[in-house]
Structures
1.
Amino acid sequence: MNKHQKIAVFGGGSWATAIVKMLIENLETVGWYMRNEQTIAHIKENDHNPKYLRSAELDANRLDLSSDINYMVAKYDVLIFAIPSAFLTGELSKLKESLESKTIFSAIKGIVPETGLIVGEHFNREYNIPLTNIGVITGPCHAEEVAMERLSYLTIACQDEDIAKKMAEALQSWYINVKTTDDIIGTEYAAVLKNIYAVAAGIAHGLGYGDNFQSVLMSNAIREMKRFIKKVHKMKRNINNSAYLGDLLVTGYSTFSRNRMFGNMIGKGYTVKSAQHEMSMIAEGYYATKSAYKIKEEKGAKTPIIDAVYNILYDDKDPKKEFKKLTNKLD
Amino acid sequence: MNKHQKIAVFGGGSWATAIVKMLIENLETVGWYMRNEQTIAHIKENDHNPKYLRSAELDANRLDLSSDINYMVAKYDVLIFAIPSAFLTGELSKLKESLESKTIFSAIKGIVPETGLIVGEHFNREYNIPLTNIGVITGPCHAEEVAMERLSYLTIACQDEDIAKKMAEALQSWYINVKTTDDIIGTEYAAVLKNIYAVAAGIAHGLGYGDNFQSVLMSNAIREMKRFIKKVHKMKRNINNSAYLGDLLVTGYSTFSRNRMFGNMIGKGYTVKSAQHEMSMIAEGYYATKSAYKIKEEKGAKTPIIDAVYNILYDDKDPKKEFKKLTNKLD
């Protein structure tokens, strides 16, 4: 274990905070970029993030905090992005430092709205980062349980096994088990799609469907996810591994998931706009639905659940009628 | 749809009551055997089962209720057993009527303790019922949600497609979707094994593991279930279909599951005896664990979760230590 790996985390939300917490279990110093200077000042003074995971104690002496993204990119070799996908291009537009020679990890679980790409592909195509220098950090993992130091399992995906292993070493601890895989495309799509299925679970709950239906929905969702990912990146993978099925379940069954909450409001009759306003948070599943729908149209995957969510969110279809139709397509 | 199919249900519990409710949506008369004569009198007078699913209205005029098992077997062609597996042989020992020429459906989801067989195999070996006349009714389905008429999906397994279809017709309604399969062995083992995994989920919860771990446990459980069932009955099946994965999830994520409650008490430090005493109900998973462990030893399947539950329930191992070991075998 090399305590001197030069890793920086980008983002100030709960998942970014959880990743920082995991890293400082192992590393001497962790770089941490966030926009909000008041938050930085608070962390420096009080050893915790005032906005997210307040209970997670973070030794500020070992944090290299900055609101200057160029400082952070220049100084660190491995960059972990944990910014909501909707803000990613805005943040990256500030860059003057080159990303070449950097290793980029996505912990975003969303699709970049401007390009419709998953984050790894976005860095690959827009910044010419070779795919071998791109990785994914995925769950199943609620940030809140990392804060509580409850045993959690992460999957690190990278085509370069050595890079994956180093990141695994930096993250693992007595409460974090890490495994590695080379399926960067599949794990990242799984992390994106599961948010759509969490929206679907929320809509179903909002409409009054019960636990029996939820289990059927999840059983169909994992089969749909398998079909979808096979179309975008065919390789041998076990869709029931934790990075795919586990991640779907931890989100689809969570009553705290933003995506599920968003769906729940839609099911209860809120318009998309009013649900978004009410939540004042970004439900990644909302953007993911549009991109995933477009991709499945291009690739020709059979995705009745994504279709139903898309029709409700983007085509103004009635949730009740749309789900009634959906129930006849599930088994 | 033949309204005159001669179907009888055996058992007075919540799942038996739910099946009766589904059947009288379609059939003119449903036979219903249960031991308790007071309960029978109450149902005749009040149109509901006083002990289980009280809210489910059951038109007593269309029920042929009796506490005489021989009367019921003689009069009906298709017999659905929904008695806890621990009581099955006791009930069957009362039989003077022959079961030959009958079609037997198991809705038991347990292993017969005296023979260590799943219910279909028990009827096949002990009563010479040909496998083609044996079927399985399986979920994912909480009886409580049937009572509430919330959309639920059943799977009917029978090697004889015609028998499966007739049973599907008798059970389906505006709130029940039914599909059929010929995998009687696999669906019945899935229904048995999921109770063990629900015990495991309960133990984990009782020990303080969180939702992140639960999703990893379920992700490993479905892979373990696939390996186990493949060893006992190799055929082409999609383990992510509702009858397998859906059934696992509806039980493993249910806080009302008896098996999960039983496991939870074990995790919290109750002895097996005191947990059983406290519950005053049979947790099918308890018996299932012993039989499944024996079968996997014979067949050589890798089943770390079943092993851990077995070691705790039958070998007096400390749940905390046993689960600590288990966490290193999961991924």
2.
Amino acid sequence: MRRAAFFVSDSTGITAQTLGNALLANFPGVQFVRRTLPFVEGGRGAAQVVRALERAQAAGLAPVVFTTVKDPAVLAALAAAPGDRIDLLGGHLTELEQVLDTTASEQLGQFHTLGDTTAYFARMRAVEFAIEHDDGQSTRALDQAEVIIVAPSRCGKTPTTMYLALQHGVLVANYPLTDDDFPTDGLPPLVAPYAGRCFGVTTTPLRLSQVRHERRPSSRYASLAQCTLELRRAEQLYQRNRIPFVNSSTKSVEEMSAVILQSLELRRERLSGDESP
Amino acid sequence: MRRAAFFVSDSTGITAQTLGNALLANFPGVQFVRRTLPFVEGGRGAAQVVRALERAQAAGLAPVVFTTVKDPAVLAALAAAPGDRIDLLGGHLTELEQVLDTTASEQLGQFHTLGDTTAYFARMRAVEFAIEHDDGQSTRALDQAEVIIVAPSRCGKTPTTMYLALQHGVLVANYPLTDDDFPTDGLPPLVAPYAGRCFGVTTTPLRLSQVRHERRPSSRYASLAQCTLELRRAEQLYQRNRIPFVNSSTKSVEEMSAVILQSLELRRERLSGDESP
């Protein structure tokens, strides 16, 4: 079965996409052709959506429409168009009004906009910090970082670093483990003072070798033997120094970031007494 | 009024956070102390959540719990704990089962996991591409890029580049406009062959001057006069060459990315005839 899945929003569409896709993941037997329609406003916006739904219907792809639109006029236009609608916001807003014993603001919810500019600019600064110190070994960066991701080259440090910076405003540095870092059992001297902020990444030797071959084909650096050796030494280093670590061959960037954030929150809690809920 | 807001998930918590925060944005009069509890599984996971809810309740922060958990045992434990629950998944899954005329998979929805590895590795490659070619002027990068973000230095090219790469797997290059690029009305020669892929960014002179002062205090580069001049010339360049552009002082990275994706989709549609829904 093939269906069109539309994510319709008066803002970026990120919320509709995120929950919509999470829901669709529960129906692996259906093939969905996805399309996001952001910034849908007023009569003209509604008319464009209706046309897109009609085209999909005519092409034999009956639409499922996930919407976070609040404007009643747009919702009415969608109700008259082809397709099944799932309103991701309305019902929950009513639930929340009861739970919080107050009415929802008439205005658009300002999520994914500049909104809280302090938090926003902290995220933007964190992205800069991550890029400037990517794979760098500057002591200053390590000193300022809240999290230091440690791993052999090409294990997947960088995308996780970027995700934590961009989505959560965490100051993340990363430190590549090289052959020179393994003669002793201790952490590399530059990193050692910050062991409590370190997080290791590992992967499988085969996967690492494949990724390294893309960069330097047929090199010793990319050989299965070298990859096996570096990963074994890295894991020993993590274990001996009680550095928590994750495997990037079985976990996505989002999952690794969630694991890292969880341990960062626990540390913040310990540092601040028991302030957080 | 202060409340605790918990985002409880058996996976990363991203879906619960995203929709939960979008909903909370509609209640600006309530102050929420937020906490994400990811990877909640089995009796032990449920017990930890219940303890966190009890602590919040005892601290005078009555919890609102946004959950995407599917496990009935965990849901039952939450139902017996303090706080109000908003089930973000269950109701919509039932709606979707009716709409799609099929039952949801018993398994966990595999969203935000490695899942579709082809799409995942495309995103990871896009992050590498973005970092390697950030602020670069390599012709090869421009040739491969699907989107080229063009703007004077410090207008906010980089975070948007990263967001498009990391979240959407788009190959994005960015090109800094310098004084040298303004003697003529045309696009800079390196960029000119790719005008159809270009996207401009502008901001306000005051904001640009502030950001530049952080980098090079009291420089000519950071002066309000220089910033005003560069932004005026950049906007003229965009307009004369029909390059769409956005203002980073009023739009978030998420909003700018949504605008850019929208125009990218339209272009893909034009290129492919009318294949998409």
